[in-house]
């Protein structure tokens, strides 16, 4: 049972677009992640995956993405304003520490919330912290399940 983790964007595109049928998700991965991820496009295989992709494709057409630019730029501007406020805040002396991974995740949540659901997920700082923490917990659990040595067992 060979596991492959791809981080190179060009290789990832090649695998996902041209060679997707050559790589299947492990049975144990589906068993462990299924309850967490559901039966959506990320977990689907074969014909079901193709069907779900066809349903999603219209939302990602160039014109649709272009229409989301105002949402993206507004969200990025809000993030920038938040950073500037931290820089000019009491005692920062023009420098502060920013967790880039957390900030980008929050930005993504904000954009997805506005574009897909018409709401600012994590509108307040406290709510954003709770939503981000919950997402981080889910992603950490998913990563642990994916990278678990159990996947190396026969049938995994």
Written overview of the protein:
The N and C termini lie close together (7 Å). With 156 residues, this protein is mainly alpha-helical. Helix 2 (27-37) packs antiparallel against helix 7. It contains seven helices and no strands. It has two domains: 1-60, no CATH class; 62-155, no CATH class.
Can I get a quick summary?
This protein has 156 residues and is mainly alpha-helical.
How would you summarize the topology of this molecule?
Blueprint: H1 9-18, H2 27-37, H3 46-56, H4 62-67, H5 69-88, H6 100-117, H7 125-147
Features:
single chain, mainly alpha, 2 domains
**What Rg is obtained from the alpha carbons, in whole angstroms?**
19 Å
Order of helices and strands: HHHHHHH
Structural class: mainly alpha
Number of domains: 2
Summarize the amount of helix as a percent range: 55-70%
């Amino acid at each position: 049972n060979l596991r492959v983790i791809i981080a190179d964007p060009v290789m990832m595109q090649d695998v996902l677009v041209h060679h997707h049928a050559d790589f299947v998700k492990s049975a144990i991965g589906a068993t462990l992640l299924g309850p967490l991820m559901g039966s959506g496009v990320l977990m689907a295989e074969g014909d079901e995956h193709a069907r779900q992709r066809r349903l999603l494709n219209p939302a990602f057409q160039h014109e649709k993405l272009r229409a989301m630019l105002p949402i993206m730029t507004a969200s990025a501007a809000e993030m920038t304003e938040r950073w500037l406020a931290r820089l000019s805040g009491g005692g920062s002396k023009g420098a502060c520490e920013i967790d880039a991974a957390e900030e980008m995740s929050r930005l993504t949540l904000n954009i997805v919330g506005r574009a897909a659901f018409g709401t600012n997920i994590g509108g307040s700082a406290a709510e954003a912290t709770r939503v981000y923490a919950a997402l981080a917990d889910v992603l950490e659990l998913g990563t642990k399940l994916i990278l678990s040595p159990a996947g190396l067992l026969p049938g995994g």
